[in-house]
Amino acid sequence: MNARQWVFGLLATAVAVPVLASETKVSLFDRPVQKIEDLPDDHYGRLVRYGHELTTRTFAHIGPEVKDKKMRFAGNNLACASCHQDNATKPFAMPWTGVTAAFPQYRGREDDLSTVEDRVNGCMQRSMSGKALPFESREMKAYVTYIHFLSRGIPVGAEIEGAATKRARAPNRRADLAAGEAVYVAQCAACHGANGEGVRVGVKGDAQGYVFPPLWGADSFNDGAGMNRLLMAYRYILHNMPQGTSHLNPTLSVDEAYDVAAYMVSKPRPHKKHLDRDFPARWNKPIDASFPPYVHGATPDQHKYGPFPPLLEKAKQLEAEYKAKQAVK
Ligand code: HEC
Ligand code: HEC
Fold this sequence. Notes:
Order of helices and strands: HEHHHHEEHHEHHEEHHHH
Protein name: C-type cytochrome
Keywords: Heme, Iron, Metal-binding, Signal
CATH topology of the largest domain: Cytochrome Bc1 Complex, Chain D, domain 2
Signal peptide: 1-21
Bound molecules: heme C
Pfam families: Cytochrom_C, SoxA-TsdA_cyt-c
Domain Cytochrome c: 64-151, 175-268
Largest sheet: 2 strands, parallel
């Protein structure tokens, strides 16, 4: 490297530093939750309020039981807030706070750059087992505006403490479904029902949703949902269930959460068509996604129920091979 190149390199670094993501850290734990009541009754305020309503009472506006058939976008009677707890503000329950600052974002599932709208439709087609909302619909605008409202004040690219789900090391063994069933009966069935069917507010067909949402069966999330992957469900359950649990006071042990999550994902649920088209760049397919192809000859059973640490090793090899091939091009 000659002197000029060296100086150029130095300058390039200096210019790049201020936009590095890790520059700004935001914690969702000491951040006051934004108050909808304080918003004026203008266009923005009204759309935020509708977005909030769509989040907590999804079933009443775009669910499969609403009167206007054209509005039946969701395929089940869950609410977004069935998973995204506390109106999608609870840390480590996939909060939407800061999502506006984190998108557009590369997503392996599509092997493409994904916008906030794409991400909303990701959950519409999987978690809600339904159809994509048109980008120009009032409902899509309301979701994006509500997410924007929750994210106000968080700089683009900030590192957010409390985002997504909290990492937890999974036991290095195949999950034990019989042990999971025992945990389910003791810790979950009182609310979610003996058959995971949940407890409705009213009666079938009334579009009023659930007091306790279903965990499996025809009215739950489909098999393409993030919650249907064992490691994702395990982290969510460990830090958020039974209701009232947070990452500060887990109720279940690591083993109990792992096994009960496996019991839940072993149960029948709606099937997402063309699942095998997810993660077109196979090197970054999550190790707990149990559709083909499988890393270096692992079985579907191992992708679904573990043990995961050996799969992680294999996935790292796959990534290294992919990157080596890219370098040759
Ligand atoms: C069955 C549980 C479930 C339901 C119901 C659900 N989601 Fe999600 N959502 C998830 C999970 C799990 C993730 C994160 C993991 C992943 O898929 O990568 C997520 C992620 C998201 C994200 C990105 C968050 C981030 O930190 O990047 C958005 C935005 C989102 N969901 C919107 C919605 C909307 C809008 C609805 C309702 C129409 C909804 N979700 C319903 C489980 C759910
Ligand atoms: C006291 C009642 C209660 C108990 C006990 C409980 N849950 Fe939940 N669960 C809820 C409620 C209510 C929600 C909806 C989110 C909210 O309002 O907090 C929920 C949401 C969920 C969700 C996401 C939504 C869905 O339909 O998939 C999962 C997964 C879940 N619970 C799993 C479990 C598991 C596993 C256990 C047992 C370890 C459990 N829950 C115990 C009340 C409960």
